[in-house]
Structure formats: C-alpha cells, structure tokens
Amino acid sequence: MLRKATLADTRKIQKLVNAYASKGEMLSLSISEICERILEFIVWEEDGELLGCCAMHPSWEDLVELRSIAVAEHASRHGIGKVMVEKVLEMSREIGAKKIFLLTYKADFFTKFGFKEVEKDTLPKKIWSDCLKCAKFPDCDETAMAMEL
C-alpha cells in the first residue's frame, strides 16, 4: 500500500536508504534529515513491513528533485519503484512544478518515465549542498536526469 510517510516511519526509511548507501549506491540519511523532510516522503508498506520509500524535494519555485528512492531488495522487480515514481510525478504536477530532476545509478529505470540525461552543471548549484557529504564528491559518478512536466 502506497501512503504518505509518518514520523513513525523514520527509522524504517533510514534502514532502507542506508542499506543502499552502505554500498555506495545513494546518500545516507540521518534520523534528523528524515524527520525534517518527512512530509516529502511516500512509502510502500505491506503487512507492517516498509518495502519502499521515495521523496519529492522542492528545489526552486518550479523545480523538484526525486530523491531517496529505495525498494527492499527482496521486493524489487514487483513494480513498487514504478508506482512510487509515478506518484512523485503526480505530486510534482499538483504543486505546480515544471521540471523534475534526479541523480541516479539506474538511468535505464528512469528513462522509461521520460527522464533524459542532462549535464550536472545545468542543475541548480544549491543541490550540491547534499553532495558535500558524499565520499565521492566532487567526482560524482551518478547520472543527472531531468524531465519537463
């Protein structure tokens, strides 16, 4: 079941995201960061188990970032990620965003939704504040992607 995240989900979101972060596949999140942004998150839960999470982070007056998308490994390839991305696209349109972007290692997945690869330097400079805590900064090897809404 897809739903908005609650504060009770913070540790589950952290565990899911940080499992991928420990493998260098996404940025880690602290409990504090998740709590501060809990209203940005949606989660997929089945039988009390959090199987997926995703966030929509407004970055500018007409721009949002799709971020922190993670699906439990044992639940991958069941359409959870697809449903979450579609929901974030819907939510982005609802708040009046004109463009959405993301940084990813899974470009093929996002291409299916209409995202296209873009140069990182075309993205707003303020997004790099999150990148400063990444061990790979400034040599980011993620693919920047964006899509007009």
Describe how the helices and strands are arranged.
Layout: E1 2-4, H1 10-21, H2 31-36, E2 41-46, E3 49-60, E4 63-71, H3 80-94, E5 99-104, H4 107-111, E6 116-117, H5 128-131, E7 143-148
Parallel strand pairs: 4-5
Antiparallel strand pairs: 1-2, 2-3, 3-4, 5-7, 6-7
What's the short version?
Helix content is 28%, strand content 30%.
Give structural notes.
By secondary structure, the chain is of the alpha+beta class. 28% of the residues lie in helices and 30% in strands. It contains five helices and seven strands. The protein has a seven-stranded mixed sheet. The mean pLDDT is 91.
* Regions with little confidence, pLDDT below 50 for 5+ residues: none
Write out the strand line-up for the largest beta sheet, numbering strands in chain order: 1-2-3-4-5-7-6
Number of helical elements: 5
Radius of gyration: 14 Å
Largest sheet: 7 strands, mixed
